[in-house]
Amino acid sequence: MKKLILLFILISTFQAQAQFGKDPMINLENWDKQRVYWGYYLGMSFYDFKFEYEEPGKDILVDNGMGFNVGLIGNLRLTEYFDLRFEPGLTFNQRDLTFPGFENEADALREVKSTYLHFPILLKFSALRTGNIRPFLIGGVSTALNLSSNVNNKQDNSNNVFRMAKWTNFYEIGLGVDIYLEYFKFTPSLRGVFSYNDELIRDNDPNSPWTGNVGSMQTRGVFLNFTFQ
User: Fold this and answer.
1) Based on the structure, what is the number of domains in the chain?
2) Is the pLDDT confidence value at 16 over 80?
3) Which of 31, 58, 89, 219 is the most exposed place for a label (fewest CB within 10 A)?
4) Residue range 104-112: average pLDDT?
């Protein structure tokens, strides 16, 4: 997460320095006056799990993996400073879980591969444009369909099958900067996503050594996206 934040700051600083000057040439001067416009984004995701337990004990260890994001953007201008955005996308990620209490590594380790169809609705608040730079804050809610959930699989962790909920709901908050180039608008942004529902499907055995002590399991993550409009 720290590396993502550092990379975001470096990219934003570099782009800002490139666009600022005593008398910068104003690019895409009337771009933000459009009622509706479209774009796409590419990026990286860093997912984690937040666990809560029924009884105190050893934590489940999460080895976080770096994922990949791709999606589309639809932007509706509400006022000079506020926009409503719909950003459907596809996210690929893997998290490795190590459960305590097992001597056999194969029993303790579960690879959680997730492919999400992500559907966020967001409100964007933009500051006053300065030259070719316009910073913004963004936040909203989203829902995601996990295509790798295994929710309909009758087998469970005793057969090396880790199951998750099919649908997950999130709230999101982030920041970014719009950079107006000669032919298009480029936007690096950093966003946190936080699930607010339990995503774990329990094993068939209520005393399962994998899921029996888990009160809730929720996704949280960071997106570093690069938008082209």
Assistant:
1) 1
2) no
3) 58
4) 88
